Amino acid sequence: MLRIAIQAKGRLNEKTMALLADAGISASVGSRSLIAHAKGFPVDLLLLRDDDIPQAVAMGTADIGIVGLNEVEEKGVEVERVLDLGFGGCRLSLAVPREADYKDLGWFDGKRIATSYPEILSRFLKANSINAKIHTITGSVEIAPAVGMADAIFDIVSSGGTLIQNGLVEVKSVLDSQAVLIASPGLSAEKREELDKLCFRFRSIIESRGMKYVLMNIPKQSLDEALKVLPGMKSPTILHLADPDWLSLHAVIPESQLWERIERLKAIGAEDILVLVLENIVK
Ligand SMILES: Nc1ncnc2c1ncn2[C@@H]1O[C@H](COP(=O)(O)OP(=O)(O)OP(=O)(O)O)[C@@H](O)[C@H]1O
Ligand SMILES: O=P(O)(O)OC[C@H]1O[C@H](OP(=O)(O)OP(=O)(O)O)[C@H](O)[C@@H]1O
Ligand SMILES: [Mg+2]
After folding, report:
1. PROSITE patterns, alphabetically (predicted)?
2. pLDDT, block means (10 residues), the chain with 283 residues
């Protein structure tokens, strides 16, 4: 039985539960539960604050965990980074007040920087020979310069909206983060086997995200042109129709290219185009 640590509540919780559900793992988690037995896979869910997940996995309290890379890097513990999960995307950046006379990293020399990520910041400052004072606070970091607590900040940025609201400008992105699956270094062979199965499910879900399954009818004489437009997994599927002048084409297309491809296919005579949601790609 694998034990997986996930965030009890917060930004990663919903998407983590959705990923588990897509992988056929369901659990009824009460608002005060700390541990839940899952159905559909031999796994227990351990519900923790995200700060505690890297340590829990490093110690073996949990075998695996889902947490932001930012927390893994901050805690500096020894865990295996198994899989990038493609959600919870953000970055850790240095930002300064809009009116600051900032030219380069040298600006930070002698300055006070507020952050909830002192370890990552300290490593970065050292690597760049910057002598700044780190002021550690646990939240509302962006307000620190305005209230005179610091000259600059080092914090999570996603849309950049919070920085703008607080009159700050991002000057250096230090770490790109997303939710990652981590594993304890000393997993037994049995647990490793379970983890491999789980990873197989996660990978097929991640790969299918943003992909569409497209079916259409195409005049036979347009086939060569259509094949130039359609990617497909290996190549598109071609099926014969009862009408000998027409073919049916099936292909997998990234959502970002969908409408541009459909316009090109319509221009060469494609009709009856169906776009279906792709649940999983199993390779
Ligand atoms: N604005 C954002 N956009 C995208 N991802 C984010 C954003 N803010 C944080 N994250 C990611 O989500 C993780 C969890 O964020 P959250 O705000 O829920 O943390 P928290 O308040 O420390 O939660 P906890 O109560 O578990 O300690 C962060 O560590 C980061 O990886
Ligand atoms: O670039 P943005 O899209 O504005 O996101 C960045 C903000 O999001 C997070 O805070 P959150 O909203 O989770 O609140 P918190 O400060 O209470 O953690 C993070 O700490 C930043 O403040
Ligand atoms: Mg936290």
Report:
1. ATP_P_PHORIBOSYLTR (PS01316)
2. 95 95 86 82 94 97 98 97 97 98 97 98 98 97 97 98 98 98 96 95 90 94 92 81 95 91 95 90 78
Instruction: Write 231-238 long-range contacts (CB < 8 A, 24+).
Output: 233/281
Residue 109 CB contacts under 8 Å (≥ 6 apart), including other chains: 130, 131, 132
- Joined together, the tokens standing for residue 268 give 């060469």
At 149, the amino acid letter reads: M
On whether both 245 and 234 belong to a single domain, the answer is: yes
> Within 148-250, where are the H helices?
161-165, 189-208, 223-229
Ligand 2 atom index nearest CA of 10:
13
- State in Å: Cα 140 to ligand 2 middle: 8
- We report the CATH number of the domain holding residue 238 as 3.30.70.120
Distance CA 283, CA 274 (A): 24
Domain coverage including residue 104: 90-177
> Which residue puts its alpha carbon closest to atom 1 of ligand 1?
158
Q: Among all ligands shown, which has an atom nearest to the Cα of 13?
A: 1
- What is the chain's alpha carbon radius of gyration, rounded to the nearest angstrom? 25
pTM for the complete prediction? 0.88
Based on the fold, state whether residues 119 and 169 are members of the same structural domain: yes
Nearest atom, ligand 1, residue 177 CA: 31
Instruction: Enter the ipTM.
Output: 0.95
Biggest CA–CA distance in the chain, Å, is 78
